[in-house]
Design a protein that fits this description.
Layout (H helix, E strand, L loop, with lengths): L14 H12 L1 H4 L4 H8 L3 H10 L5 H17 L7 H12 L2 H16 L2 E5 L3 H15 L4 E4 L14 E6 L6 H12 L3 E6 L5 H5 L2 E4 L19 H19 L1
Helix pairs in contact: 1-4, 7-11, 8-11
């Protein structure tokens, strides 16, 4: 069974810090849901003790430690008995999507969608299929939208048009997609990155970034086959279409 913590210098912890660490090891799910003050109260230690423990184990602080703990627990849950559960991964994403921070970003984007002349959805490969789906869904919702799924397609935007371009890319490193992104920025479009993680070229070049932050998965039969669930992208597309509809009505 894969361990929650690997190669962490627990020998550096003093007695109180070790007590906190043991509490975390025994109840990781509970600890991942509580505040540092609650943990300090349960362990009868100060919050400073918990922060020192996190620092000694190689983390920047409690927030960094808790972020690692949550992600690791999700990873272990998804890989029980070596079986990847894409529905469980999607469920984890939905919990994040309905946080205040995520919903604020969706509302911000929905207002922008309501204000532009049309939207573009750009993607290649699997993301190209998602771009096609997104443009059709937006058109069905009454929003003018087009898909760019040919990585070599010439991009043109009339200077009088306000355009919002969504770049769909799991990795954020597809060269042809990055080229289209640069073309769109040069033509005056506002660019929104929709990628799995934030540390990639597409995100660094975009005006707005939205991530779904799931474990990358590949086929065991065909190593180049990408199996990371794309359900979060479809959920985001549909949320944005519906939310911008509400803004039109108001």
């Amino acid at each position: 069974m894969e361990k929650l913590f690997v190669n962490v210098p627990v020998d550096k912890l003093n007695d109180l810090e070790s007590l906190v660490f043991n509490k975390i090891i025994k109840n990781p799910s509970h600890v991942s849901q509580i505040t540092i003050r609650d943990l300090a109260k349960e362990c009868h230690v100060s919050t400073s003790t918990i922060i020192r423990m996190a620092n000694k184990l190689g983390f920047k602080g409690w927030a960094d430690f808790k972020h690692y703990l949550k992600n690791k627990l999700e990873y272990l849950a998804l890989h029980q008995e070596g079986i990847y559960n894409n529905i469980m991964a999607f469920d984890f994403f939905l919990k994040r999507m309905f946080t205040d921070e995520y919903q604020t970003r969706i509302t911000q984007l929905a207002k922008m969608i309501a204000d532009v002349d049309y939207c573009l959805f750009v993607g290649a490969g699997n993301s190209g299929s998602l771009a096609d789906y997104a443009s059709k869904y937006f058109n069905n919702a009454g929003h003018s939208a087009h898909a760019i799924i040919d990585p070599y397609q010439l991009v043109q935007i009339h200077p009088d048009n306000k355009v919002l371009a969504f770049i769909l890319s799991n990795s954020g490193e597809t060269i042809q997609v990055i080229d289209r992104l640069l073309d769109l920025k040069q033509l005056g479009a506002t660019v929104v990155a929709v990628t799995n993680h934030s540390d990639n070229t597409v995100c660094r070049l975009s005006d707005i970034v939205i991530n779904y932050q799931l474990q990358d998965e590949k086929s065991v039969i065909f190593p180049e086959g990408k199996l990371t669930t794309q359900l979060p992208v479809m959920a985001l597309v549909e949320q944005l279409a519906h939310r911008s509809n509400l803004i039109y009505r108001s």
